[in-house]
Amino acid sequence: MLTLTNDLVAIGQTATDKADAIAQAVDLLTAAGKIDPRYGASMMGREQVANTFLGNGIAIPHGLPKDRDLIHDTAIAVVQIPAGVDWGSGDRARLVVAIAARSDEHLAVLTNLTDVLGDDAVADKLATTTDVAEIVARLTGQAPANDTATAPATDLGDSFTVTIAGPHGLHARPATALVTLAKGYDADIRLRHGDKVGNAKSLISLLRLGADQGAEVTVSAEGPQAPEALDALRAAFAQGLEDERDSVDDAPAGPAPVAAALDWEGKTLPGISSSPGYALAPVFQFLREDVSFATDADDPSTEQARLDAALQTAWRQLEALYEDVWKKSGPAKAQIFRAHQEFLGDPEMIEAAAALIAQGRSAGFAWNTAVSERADMLSGMPDATLAARAADLRDVGLRVLKQLGEVTGGARLPDQPCILVADDLTPSDTAQLDKALVKGLCTASGGPTSHTSIIARALDIPAVVGAGPAVLDLANGTAALLDGTGGGLVLDPTAADTRHAEAAMNDLVAQRETEARDRFKPAITTDGARVEVVANISDVAEATAAIDAGGEGVGLLRTEFLFVNRDHAPTEDEQVAIYSAMLDAMNGLPIIIRTLDVGGDKEIPYLRMPVEENPFLGTRGIRFCLTHEAIFRTQLRAIFRASARGPVRIMFPMVAMTDELDDALRIAEEVRAEVGAEHAEMGIMIEVPSAVMMAPELARRVDFFSIGTNDLTQYALAMDRMHPTLARKADGLHPAVLRLIDQTVKAAARAGIWVGACGGVAGDPLGARILAGLGLVELSVSIPSIPSVKAELRATSMEDNRALAGRALGCADAAAVRALA
């Protein structure tokens, strides 16, 4: 454990400038034998790229990662300057805490500093005390965080106390859930953990509480809706505030894994396994772009408007990232960017930036300062999972900052196969990587609990983190072997190393290759029944990818992608061009185009959608189309015009009643006649229980049903499938959902129409078998799932699948169904 001794503290000092203050700290560290004196130049180098002023008169100078070899032992030195010294941009440092860290032993000191940052009285006391022991006690945790200089933390009017049950405490995911819930109530809501208090509507504020598993937290509220808010929060805590098992914040159980014993002949730089697998490729150093900005500005109102616009742009970019990662890796991994959006709306951070703008600072300076202060606080948290969120906050901060300053340098991404090396990668960096070129990832810092690590695993890219600053000195083109399983980067691997890695890589992909080799074979069961396996897609590139993956058509084209990330709706000609390109890519295979499905969690600002208390039960799906008939008719015209290029089926979303379907069919027929197009098969999505109940009547009006298992599950079980506390229970294999599907299929059979499915259950191997056994003849799945679903069906008989489905219908819950596998 790091200790701070009296000989590393100098009180009552003066300094002419920042360099002089740092030099005094360096002298203390050098005299104690903790650093090579050249580390002082590294500290000044850090000041050139980042202001280390933490806030409330405290600065934390530290060196660049590449110079950690100049540190003999991790240590800190404190220089107290009661009169203060200019630290740049108008900030004055009175307590200079210089950090020379080879590892993470200094994090406890940073954690203690976060308490000081929020307390003017304590900060002033440390900057003026003549007792060295008082400073040592405070920074090493020997003094209570809430001493006589600090007012005791208080609760609001009504309250309840709860024990945090989650294995990782109140980390990003449950905290995000609480913030989202709290923002829905007109009340001030506060969480208190010991002497620390957090605003329940501020994600950063909650993370700073550092509430681990078993921590006792008091939740209090006052205001018009305080009772309702407390009831909702009490229920949320009772549910555990946990998401599905593969949620973005799930970390390995127990302590972070350490590097395994690496048996390679080449020089090995050990790290921590973050994503398993192996890669053989040359090194490529990743460089992130720099952003410069002015410190001051003349017009605060203009600067505030610039910040507001930048926040909105960043929100839209994150929404696009969310959609992209959702399609590639599923909703759990995409939730990272929902948490990033929550950072953007953090009230305390926005207020801090606004206050600086009002003082005459530029929007860029104000935003960067507000973000940096809070990121530094998070990085000082003792819990690794919470500290890792600092990288996420800095990622969000940079995204906004790019809109406010001048970007120079530009991020360097590879154009040849490589092992990408970086100090660390943000989730945004990782999400944009081209898997065809980035064969492996190796970072100097970071950990296996970071969001970057989780996305790397989702993209199936081998990764090693925490390999140390030495990896940053590697020249581009250096031959390397990445051992993502053992946790290390092997430089200039020998022939034996290469043979061993290649053999491991071959074993790892053998099963995938078998499935890929047979991906074009139809999914015909052993007793001769065929099930079509088609793809869910959202753009032209995915249409081509679906065919390459063995897809036998498109079972769901989500047309929302045409409407997002723009300021106006697409024109008819734009839509015709896109639909035509997709039909050309399908080369005669059928494509089901779902008309615009917005509402609920799919909001498009320029469409001026109404603010609804419960948008999932509001104007969404076909209801939106019917109330925005001009947009609906334009889309239908484009679809019918494009239908000349290939077989098109049209599908209406979220149909709940026969009159909705009648209106949609009437409009579609009017548009078809205007265009002069041939008739197209018409279908609906079965997503709500009322559609199941009315399936006999609905079936007489259409050519097919497609069951949206995701929405049908949430409406049948009354559980939002993205809800932070209920999502793990919203299982599409619940017998209640399966019985609704069974009822739908039987109604369709009596009317002589076919039924498919386009939800997540269809891509689950067990789910695919049960759906086939229930009588579905088409399964529309994510592109990567196509080969494995087809292989699963080919390996079974329809007789066995029907028997399996029968047993599933008789189960009492989803767990019992899954136990049938």
TrEMBL record:
It comes from the Bacteria. Residues 157-244 form the HPr domain. Pfam families: PEP-utilisers_N, PEP-utilizers, PEP-utilizers_C, PTS-HPr, PTS_EIIA_2. This is Multiphosphoryl transfer protein. Its main location: cytoplasm. One of its GO terms (biological process) is phosphoenolpyruvate-dependent sugar phosphotransferase system. The phosphoenolpyruvate-dependent sugar phosphotransferase system (sugar PTS), a major carbohydrate active transport system, catalyzes the phosphorylation of incoming sugar substrates concomitantly with their translocation across the cell membrane. The enzyme II FruAB PTS system is involved in fructose transport. The keyword Transport applies. CDD domains: PTS-HPr_like (cd00367), PTS_IIA_fru (cd00211). One of its GO terms (cellular component) is cytoplasm. The keyword Cell inner membrane does not apply. Signal peptide: none annotated. It comes from Salipiger aestuarii. Residues 2-142 form the PTS EIIA type-2 domain. Its cofactor is Mg(2+).
